[in-house]
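> tool_call: predict_assembly(chains=two)
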Amino acid sequence: MIKPLITLTEAFKRFPGIGQKQAERFAFYILKSSEPDMENLISAIEDAKRRIKACPICCSYSEKTPCEICSDDKRDKHIICIVENYTDLLAIEKTGKYNGLYHVLMGVLSPLDGVHQDNLNIKNLIKRLDGIKEILIATNPTVEGDATAIYLSQILKSRELKITRIAKGIPSGGNIEYADEITLVNALDGRKEI
Amino acid sequence: MIKPLITLTEAFKRFPGIGQKQAERFAFYILKSSEPDMENLISAIEDAKRRIKACPICCSYSEKTPCEICSDDKRDKHIICIVENYTDLLAIEKTGKYNGLYHVLMGVLSPLDGVHQDNLNIKNLIKRLDGIKEILIATNPTVEGDATAIYLSQILKSRELKITRIAKGIPSGGNIEYADEITLVNALDGRKEI
């Protein structure tokens, strides 16, 4: 293959979930696409890098400093929802059911992948606990997410805080017959009176 | 989602095989990656667009005009291998078993997708037939590839040319038990004395 194509393919191979074949397809897409399309792509990349920053308080992405949520007076400043990353924040915002603040951990404890507590955005969390009444831990219900939730609850338990964890159970539209055992145990443990 | 992120996600959604979720992951990858990484990506895109051109003779990609293969005196100038696209050319080159010229069709006849003979690089093929003794049609053994091969053989048959088609059969390491019927019929039809 020609040198500039190899360089371009290598650059695309760094994209998440992209292997050699798909990176090559991307490189050929670049070759085939029109000049204005390419200018759009490049300016979209440059724009995003220049205009979007991590909020110094909650670490979510925003064009404002602090972000729209942290600087919104209408939001409940007594509760912080801890999420693994910005996309989880977006998913919760989409429900419209949560009106508190957020804190983006930027990952999850995963010693095997070399992610320890110091690699997560935890120090900033400790700094912003004044006036907070509840911490809602919304890390994913995976091994790493659960371990992170336990770790956070341990370092926070000395403070006068209500610490909560999002509910686990059968997803809406799900099927008890096909649910795995752990999910079913969680659903039974978490049963509520109706 | 924030405006520059939406614009970037839309740009990535135009990449082949990329949907909303994967495009979002790419956009976040861009946000998270370092400035030098982004400069590398952008210069790789610009470099590829600026330095790589389609060869005016065979339409394969190259930094040279005409391309390395068309301008190579050591190659057999009496045979042209017709391929659907540049990646097929690369695959055949990798075998080291073919030493003739190529002609890249830039696609394959597919009326349902709006690809007709005028959309393919066929006119340039007709122009370069002087001195050619054999045309090896190496379009894929799909419905569209076969139809394109038949079409090409019909428009070329009035000329004094040997027209050949790559062999179809059981792939190396394949299993007769699991081969589909059409492949098996092709393998039987194409049997050779040993």
